[in-house]
Design goal:
single chain, Rossmann fold, alpha/beta, Pantoate--beta-alanine Ligase, Chain: A,domain 2, binds adenosine monophosphate, 278 residues, globular
Amino acid sequence: MDLIVARNRTDLIKARRDGSVALVPTMGALHEGHRSLIRAARARADQVVVSVFVNPLQFGPSEDFSRYPRTFDADLDVCRAEGVEVVFAPAVQDMYPPDRQVSVSSGEMGRIVEGASRPGHFDGMLTVVLKLFNLVRPDLAVFGQKDAQQLAMIRRMVADLDVPVEIVGVPTVREPDGLALSSRNRYLSAAERQVALALSRALRAGAAERVPSKVRAAARAVLEEAAPELELDYLALVDPATFCEVPELYSGEAVLAVAARTGTTRLIDNVVIALSPA
Ligand code: AMP
């Protein structure tokens, strides 16, 4: 069946078929990471809807909204190749009429770690995700572990606001040398890409340890070697559900998350580590 491109609510309703629906929200510039999400959606539902929307609400004033890569025709080819039924690509003015008032607040959890570096980011992200849920009305929605705090915040929103959508998380897809795939990787020069490898190297070094202080120290040492070309924003070892820093005597899964800049490109990455006290 042909891929349907839905531009608005009416198109979406027309594209609706009987059976279960899985939504994969994206900002386009689709790569293998997005494909992995689409395959997880494909395996779980009768109809797959991929949204392609660069959401202005989740970009800060000094961030890359206007230069964010937009590759819509290539994105449609990816969706066709993956057997997607519907691409939902609304216009900014339709999603956000000028008289809008109400939005989602991400609370205290939206102001820590990634949220501390990007004020308003998680409010904007949750607002668009809830709108997409209300427009598409999926049974389930698929998100990448690559944006670990985003995934945790969406799970929190679904629980706190009783949103009737099942949330599925998918592991991070990486290049053979460890670099996590990201639409922003295309900004990197060859030299910057080499520097950026320190993120995944640091996470691997941290993941070889089992105690929080050692995890943090091992990761930090790798990141320091890459300075000053790599400018560290944060390194955090947190509870996967709350994103609060874990104490030294912690056992169970934790997320080691890093954000850093090389040149003008800001990159994030994370790994899940099973911790056990010494
Ligand atoms: P984005 O288009 O960057 O907003 O990402 C859309 C979705 O793809 C989010 O759920 C991301 O977490 C996910 N994603 C981005 N990069 C990767 C990756 N390398 N592996 C798995 N999922 C990813």
